[in-house]
Amino acid sequence: MITRTVSKNPRTTRGDLVNDLQRAGTKVTKATISNTLRRQGLKSCSARRVPLLKPVHVQARLKFAREHLDDPEEDWENVIWSDETKIELFGKNSTRRVWRRKNAELHPKNTIPTVKHGGGNIMLWGCFSAKGQGRLICVKERMNGAMYREILSDNLLPSARALKMKRGWVFQHDNDPKHTARAMKEWLRKKHFKVLKWPSQSPDLNPIENLWRELKVCVAQRQPQNITALEEICMEEWAKIPAT
């Protein structure tokens, strides 16, 4: 019963199982439940957060993967990846735990769908390539198209030069409306930037997400107490992340 229940609903807690079994006339402890599930190859893990995907998003992501399946490693080394993220001053986002088998962390039952909204105390724009980090910028006001163009104008080319990118390097950003607006596309065309075509609702395909996680873990460990300290610590920790 225990294994069958968590296989059907991985978010079932040990407390839920204890109560279900008691109602069925069987008294067990949480430790017994844990041991039973481990013997079946199941362990309690934090549910992965993944984008909320519609069928059209799934097809676009599959198309993107197939188009780039045979790209040589050198092509990816010539990409500058970019993104914005928000970092909270206090606490961490809540997580949910699930019972899952090894290598099943991305099964839909074991994940928490997310969308690109939510709170945060400061917004950052950053970029990087296979050679290391580019610039990291704290966005002081609500970002609009004009501000985004200014950020790229002031920071993208300097980052490319600092990273010693080869001729014909490729710029990646997602499909945020600020990024795909007609004025933005025209500006990129005039600047002769080659832009990687990106599938919608695919932040998890961007390797910069791993860099954001690294940054957030390092910042959380230092426990900034105010916005000024949070910004300073973000810049310090970003610079300290090794290129490897």
Describe the structure.
The protein is 43% helix and 20% strand. The strands form three sheets. The chain has a five-stranded mixed beta sheet, sandwiched between helices. The termini are far apart. It is built from ten helices and nine strands. The longest helix is centred in the middle third of the chain and has 18 residues. It is α/β, with parallel strands linked by helices and 244 residues long.
Give a quick set of tags describing it:
single chain; alpha/beta; 5-stranded mixed sheet; two-stranded antiparallel ribbon; 43% helix
Low-confidence stretches: 114-119
As a percent range, the share of helical residues equals 40-55%
Reading side by side through the largest sheet, how are the strands ordered? 7-6-3-8-9
Give the ordered list of helices and strands. Answer: HHHEEHHEEEEEHEHHEHH
Class computed from helices, strands and strand pairing: alpha/beta
Domain Transposase Tc1-like: 1-70
Domain Tc1-like transposase DDE: 79-230
GO biological process, one term: DNA transposition
GO molecular function: DNA binding
